[in-house]
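Standup notes
- HV: blocked on the assembly model, inputs below
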Amino acid sequence: MLVYIVRRFAGMMVVMLLVAMVVFLIARVVPGDPAAVMLGSSATPEDIAALRGRLGLDEPLLTQFLLYLGQIVRFDLGDSIFLNRPVVQALAERSELTGLLTMMSVGIAMLIGVPVGILSAAKRGGLVDQTAVGLAMLAASIPSFWIGLTLIKYLAVDHAWFPVAGYGPPDADLLERMRHLVLPAIALGIPNSALILRFTRTSMLDVMSHDYVRTARAKGLPPLVVVLKHALRNAMIPILTVIGLTTAVMIAGAIVTETVFGLPGVGNLIVSAVLRRDYPVIQGALLVVSAIYVLINLTVDLLYAVVDPRVRY
Amino acid sequence: MASVPAGHGNVPLPSSTKAGSSRSPATLLLRQLFRRRLVVLSFLIMLAILAVALLAPWITPFNPMKMDILGRLKPPTAAHWFGTDEYGRDVLSRVMLGARLSLLVGLLVVVVATLLGTLLGLAAGYVRPLDGLLMRLTDALMAFPDILLAIAFMAALGPSLYNVVLALGIVYTPRVARVVRAACLVVREMPFIEAATALGASTPRIVFLHILPNLMSPILVQATFIFAYAILTEAALSFLGVGVPPTTPTWGNMIASAQQYFQQADWLILFPGCAIVLTVLSLQIVGDGLRDALDPRLQKAK
């Protein structure tokens, strides 16, 4: 087990190194001088030269990359050009909202996807199953920002059941903030519930075709017990994988949803950084989000052993 | 695989006179594909959308760019079926033009991702020393969520239609590469490849003439799904204002520019949104159908 963890961790570090390389190169493939692009057309040559010096742009590319890696290892992601603060701080300030939004969305996606997927598999081929599979496909085809706008129009503007946008006053308590995140979480959760539903269904169908499930049925156990106790347990691994995967996808999906609902989270930070060409922020956010993405995948792999005692590494 | 002696052009084989029966692989595939009514329906919808996209400049009821300040933000009427937008432009005409642009982006992304992904996948699958490196590279690219990587590329490249194509093309390349590699690893071990090697066929000949044709089904299935994802992601990028420049009426841009007005004029987001959903949904159903239709043949080959 320990050997496996160490090996997986080493593999992850290689991927993260390549990720860091991609992130590093993104700010270097900008057409023209990155410093001039960042400062805009009103910058003087002296300003540009100063910024070039500050960003280390005059060093050879490999040196620059090594310097960048050294920074990352020290959890220093550089300073934002427009926000006058370290990127790490800017990200930390915004992470509560995005974290809460992601958790609520994952909750909604799971609450829809897992039970309906189980039901669908239990009633394979029936009306419920066909409807569920059809709806899942539809849900996966709807852009989340469009769901968001539609929810705003009908539930917040026409009926005023939910706030139209924003995150409430700064002193709002957790419940009030969560109320502001209900519609965004639905908008983000629905398209992602489709994936969870389909995986749950496939995984359950796979397990339910095994002999031991037939035996359990033949013993005369109630169908509910067979499905929930015998089948679901062994179907959990793929379900867990896809939930981990969707969580990671939703962190990125939050970028779009936060824009729709005017929420000041990490996604909002990224979009405004792109519009202002604030490269340190873009790079830092990319690095952090993909690190979380990779970490979630690793955690899910390691959780297998907990869920399924047969898995021994 | 009827193998014509190497080096000679396409000599028509006598077998082709065999009553041109409907036994060709393409006909078999279509017959499999159209066994389900939903797939037929989706395929027809896809063709209809494609036709609108191709013919848009000639069949829009109004000039999609013509403004009419007096007739702005009018709900759907007999003249303007989808209503008018904030400049009084006909929404139906703009949705039709949007089909042309959104599908163009989607198709070009498919072309870029499929070409790059196939080349990388073949290299990784056939040239063993390259495999480890190339697969770690795809791992790294797949460690970013799609939309985030696309945004990052757009930040570096700047907003333009072709940069969106390039960015999304790179984002979806690893998916094709992995599928092609996996299938290539299976095909390269088959006896007919050994036979071709024994006959002295060159590596490019083996890779492109013997292996590649056998990878067409997984590539086709992936391409269909990437088409769907590309349309969704392009819409999201444009909605965020980091995609196709806002003056170009793709479906995503139409929804983005309606953000200020949709609370009073919901038709501004309703119709472009439905266009996206309909297109992506029919593409996904056709993709699923293709996968199911192609699967038994793959299993038989194993």
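- HV (later): unblocked. The two ends of chain A are 5 Å apart (CA to CA). The longest helix of chain A spans residues 223-260.
- Next: hand off to the docking folks.
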